[in-house]
Write a structure and sequence with these properties.
The structure is a single chain. By secondary structure, the protein is α+β, with helices and mostly antiparallel strands. It has a single domain, classed as 3-Layer(aba) Sandwich (Glutaredoxin). It contains three helices and six strands; from the N terminus they run E-E-E-H-E-H-E-E-H. Strands 4-3-5-6 form a four-stranded mixed sheet, sandwiched between helices. Strand 1 and strand 2 form a beta hairpin. The N terminus is likely disordered.
C-alpha cells in the first residue's frame, strides 16, 4: 500500500492534500486565526486515517474568498464536505470522525 499524498492550500497557494478516494473535505481558515491551527491539526489527522480528498483553504486566497462568498461564510474555521457547509469552529477528533461517518 502506498503512502497517502497530501497538499495544503495556504497563503502561498495550493499544494496537493490527501488524494485518496472518498468525500471531499475542505477546511476554510485564515493564517491569523489562532483556533484555525488546532482545526488543521485535527483534520490532518482524520485525513491520514481515512480516504479523504482533503484540503486546507485560506480565505486570503482567491479560492478561499470564492468559497466563502458562495457559502455566505462569516466565521472560521469552517468545514465543507462535498460542497456543503457542515461545521463551524474547532472539532475534536471524535466530532471530526463523526462528520465524515455521517450518511
Amino acid at each position: 500500500m502506498s503512502a497517502p499524498h497530501f497538499k495544503v492550500t495556504h497563503a502561498l497557494g495550493a499544494i496537493p492534500v490527501h488524494t485518496g478516494r472518498g468525500m471531499k473535505v475542505q477546511l476554510l481558515i485564515s493564517e491569523s486565526c489562532v483556533p484555525c491551527s488546532q482545526a488543521v491539526k485535527v483534520w490532518r489527522q482524520v485525513a491520514e486515517e481515512r480516504a479523504l480528498d482533503f484540503s486546507v483553504v485560506n480565505l486570503s486566497d482567491p479560492e478561499g474568498r470564492c468559497l466563502a462568498d458562495k457559502l455566505d461564510l462569516r466565521t472560521i474555521p469552517a468545514v465543507v464536505i462535498d460542497d456543503l457547509l457542515v461545521a463551524i469552529g474547532v472539532q475534536s477528533l471524535e466530532e471530526a470522525r463523526a462528520l465524515i461517518s455521517s450518511p
